[in-house]
Amino acid sequence: MTAVLHDIRHGYGDVEVLHGIDLDLPAGHLVALLGPSGSGKTTLLAIAGGLLTPTAGTVHINESPLYVRGKVDRKAAGNTAYVLQASALIGFLTVMDNLLVRDITTGKKPDRKRAEELLDAVDLAAKAGRYPSQLSGGERQRAAVAAALYTQAPVILADEPTAALDRERGRAVMELLAAHAHDRDAAVLVVTHDERALDLADRVVRIEDGRLG
């Protein structure tokens, strides 16, 4: 599944922060979006994930429009999974249940074995029964990555997924995201300041002042 952003513009008041951005996210590729703070990275990611309606432009998920008459098409948005900087874990659920919750709420049989494998891959197997408030910032970040990957979504959007991680764990997270793209033919977009694991990206795109370089 692919995601295509065309002529994306967005502004706050009279200030335009994204200036006609075109970006293709092909299936089977991890694309890294690199740029300084304030360059528009997070705004673009939010638009790609259906969290922020653009002022102008279109987003298509596998040729289906994400925004229809200014509103998010929930079916198209359902093909995406989002890793937020703040992790967005559900506070009253354990780490394990944060992975299983989508299956539980949709009536699908939870795949506990897969969840255990993912938590092991992010070095959190021993903390599966803990709550987000009992984790460090880096642990919450790793749990959020595991939760996104558990969904097996064909489009993964990750906002600074290695920001709170040391070099070894940051690289391990990037390896998991790259494997998801390559093994499941998914489109993965990672917004980052971190240049340590860019060799794992299939394409590196730089953004500055709301324009792609």
Question: How would you characterize this protein structure?
Answer:
The strands form 3 sheets. Strands 8-9-10-3-11-12 form a 6-stranded mixed β-sheet, with helices on both faces. The chain contains 6 helices and 12 strands. The protein has one domain (27-39, 74-212): Rossmann fold (3-Layer(aba) Sandwich). It has helices spanning 41-48, 74-77, 95-106, 112-121, 137-150, 167-183, and strands at 3-12, 15-25, 29-34, 56-61, 64-65, 67-68, 71-72, 80-83, 155-159, 187-192, 203-208, 211-212. Helices cover 31% and strands 29% of the residues. With 213 residues, it is α/β, with parallel strands linked by helices. A hairpin with a 2-residue loop joins β1 and β2.
